Request: fold
Amino acid sequence: MISSVGESVEGLLMSRNKNTAVKGQNTPSNEEYLALYQAAGQLRAQKPWDTLGAGDLVGVRDPETGVTGYCGLLGQMGEYFALHVYLGGEGMDAYRALVDAGDDLEGEPSQLNLMLAGRSQKNLVVDFSDAAEVSPVDKARVKRLGLSIREKCAWPVFMRNDPCFEHRDLDCREVRFLTTAIREVLSVTARVRDDGLVLPEPFLTEKVLVRVPVYEDGVLVWKDVIEVLETSSVPESDPLSESDRGALEGMPVRELYLELAHTILPAIIKARESDRGMLTRMLIATDGRSGKILGFYMFEPGEFPGGAVRQVASMLKTLGFIPSRLVMNDRWLFAAVGNAVPALRSSLALSTRMEASEDAFLAISQFMLGKHQGT
Reply:
């Protein structure tokens, strides 16, 4: 197992410097941005979060790609105002994971689970901030468009999120789709408020109202369709080699409460300032009783999920025995390991509460953030 955090961070930085270049994006035109800012202004002024609850979703089909964006509003608490558009089944699954991670009935939500879910989102976002919190780039864009924003918490900020990446600005197609999504959400909200339209409860019925574009006599019109919420396909890990499987099945079982946590570290890594920053997905193996970090592994870009089970096997082979209790926080990894190595099934357990792993995650995160700020 890896024993030096410093050595592993240096190696990761060196390897990722070769792979962090961001391809050029299609820059939105001033006309496209102006339409988006105007739609965002209507969103902030009409306050649809006063009508729709935090658990309500409205689907909007992208006329250009056919992807469904599941639109959720935040602002019911009067503190943070935003529209999040979760993209397709992958975006919807990541949103569910975030809700589950924050809904811990046993106490404070797990930070490593929140980080994993929060940094796995796939969505488009518009949120509203005070002028002091807005970047110079956004302020320059507003000035270039000839707009004036004077109200508190009314500056719209737009972004695209992808798993294990720093958020980025929208490209021209995303600007157009987010503009459309805002308009359709406002249209549905007005019908809920004024006409008594009842939306399906998505997490109880698994259904959602989707606004679908249809051409009638050459004219684009929008219609309501009730659809089942999309889900993404279950990712697959590469199969273990016969030698790895044989080695694990031949190892003795010894008394050890081992926590194996899957999470994402908060440090953003980039080779150049113009690159899109990347975040590190990792496994942390911790003695659940003593709190000692027994090992960890940082995945390279594209290595997860294919190499996930293989790395679990490598960590256990280095340990030299099967722990009597092997607790995981990731439901998918729990199932993948159990399917790949039947000899481990009697030791496996799934839990959202892993106190030793929480402490280990905090220690490694603080080191990584310090290391990153020092480079």
User: Anything to note?
Assistant: Confidence is low (pLDDT under 50) at residues 1-24. The longest helix spans residues 172-195. Residues 267 and 372 are 7 Å apart (CA to CA). The radius of gyration is 23 Å.
